[in-house]
Amino acid sequence: MMQTLVGHTSAELTELLTLKGLPGYRGKQLGKGLYTRFLRDFEGFTDLPKALREQLAQEFTLAPCTERSIQSAPDGTEKYLLNLPDDEVIEAVYLPYDERTSVCVSSQVGCPMACSFCATGTEGLARNLTAGEIVDQLLFMQAKHPEQRISHLVLMGMGEPLLNLPNVLKALRLIHDEVGLSYRNITVSTIGVVPAMEKLAAENLPITLAVSLHAPNNALRSELVPLNEKYPISRLLEACRDYVEATSRRITFEYVLMAGINDTEKEAHELGVLLRRQPLCAVNTIPYNTTDVAARYQRPTPEAARLFREIVASYGVNITQRYEKGHRIAAACGQLKRSTLKLGSTMRPLPLLSEVPTEAVPEPAA
Ligand code: SAH
After folding, report:
1. Is the CB of 333 inside a 6 Å radius of any atom of ligand 1?
2. Which of 6, 78, 148, 282 is the most exposed place for a label (fewest CB within 10 A)?
3. How far, in Å, CA of 233 to CA of 68, rounded?
């Protein structure tokens, strides 16, 4: 049973070394190698004595993620399928833009939220990712692109990050403290797990919170997002106001436009009315990426999407369309499906929210 190093702070690495009777003061170098040089094997730690590197290789696994496959699109987007130590598979996306390089990472293997239009949601949850597995998606992609500094990270891959909050928070701290990304360049996207939003607000991190709204009324939202039954729109928007008050950070509402479902003029007016007095918020529309989840969910025409935005904007609400990448390699939002990744993985039913862990789980043995 070997412990994995990625997922530990430099201070924790120092402790781990000491526990094994190894020179603890090397923990800092180890952390630098993992988080700023993106090393993925012990031989790369040329600043450590060879004997120590060999001892480390005997005692520890370096990182949890290994490559399964990488698919590239002409626009530079890359979809990574990564193997985890227990043979689960997750997906992460590398998104180079002119002015920034962004990565989209997963927070769970699968997702228990079962949103009716989302490919990941049809699959159920296998398990939460550890902090190390979340961070390692970034490290893995950065190691593949040494020339291109990753500047932005979004937690919009598989899973509901706020159902895995302790591990997500630990991962964000590592990404900030050890890798050196600014919290302002990190976005956490949630379907609206209200109690966890309150916990996140209390952390007061200057990250961006994105809330997947998708509908302006409860009847429609409950059809798309089962969790709406538990936390209806009024309760969700109240939690958003509390979040803004606690953090002074703007909230982004995500609104996936689906033709004839939530993209008509009626919904646009309702959304404008709903959000016109909501403080410090902006809406991001995302045209639905067609999946095989259900035939009734289709992409809107660009004209319908433009009209929708114009109407919402007429209420004084900030609204923009998310620039899209990776559609051709099914690397875009909500197209990540476990069954195409792995056969026979275990699925669990939707957990009760009271079962959501409050402590970070330890990094498992490899
Ligand atoms: N669970 C989190 C984050 C993961 S999904 C959340 O729900 O916010 C990131 C975004 O992609 C969410 O807004 C989600 O609703 C959206 N999405 C899901 N399926 C999609 C699809 N087929 N096309 C476009 N966006 C989709």
Report:
1. yes
2. 148
3. 40
Selected catalytic residue, list 111, 133, 333, 363:
333
Q: Is residue 334 within 6 Å of ligand 1 at its C-beta? A: yes
Mutate to test the pocket of ligand 1, among 108, 111, 118 (most ligand atoms within 8 A of CB): 118
| pLDDT at 291 > cutoff 90 | no
What pLDDT score was predicted for residue 313?
Answer: 98
**Is-catalytic flag, 91?**
yes
Going from the Cα of 298 to the center of ligand 1, the distance in angstroms, rounded, reads 14
359 pLDDT tier (thresholds 50, 70, 90)? very low
Q: Measure the CA–CA gap between 91 and 341, rounded to whole angstroms.
A: 9
Q: Taking a C-beta distance cutoff of 8 angstroms, is the pair 218, 212 a contact?
A: no
Q: Give buried/exposed letters for 303-339 (b at 16+ CB in 10 A, else e).
A: ebbebbbebbeebebebebeeebbbebbbbbbbbbbe
CB 158 within 8 A of CB 119: no
- Nearest-angstrom CA–CA distance, 287 and 322: 8
Q: Are β-strands 60-61 and 124-128 bridged in parallel, bridged antiparallel, or unpaired? A: unpaired
Amino acid letter, residue 109: V
DSSP classification of residue 121: G
Q: How far is CA 143 from the centre of its chain?
A: 19
* pLDDT for residue 358: 43
User: Is there an atom of ligand 1 within 6 Å of 270 CB?
Assistant: no
For atom 24 of ligand 1, which residue has the closest CA?
A: 288
CA of residue 35 to ligand 1 center, whole Å: 29
Exposed/middle/buried for residue 358 (C-beta within 10 Å: 0-12, 13-18, 19+): exposed
Amino acid 37 reads R
Q: What local confidence, expressed as pLDDT, does residue 328 receive?
A: 62
Encode 257-284: b = buried (16+ Cβ within 10 Å), e = exposed: bbbebbbbeebbbbbbebbeebeebbbb
Q: Is the pTM of this model over 0.85?
A: yes
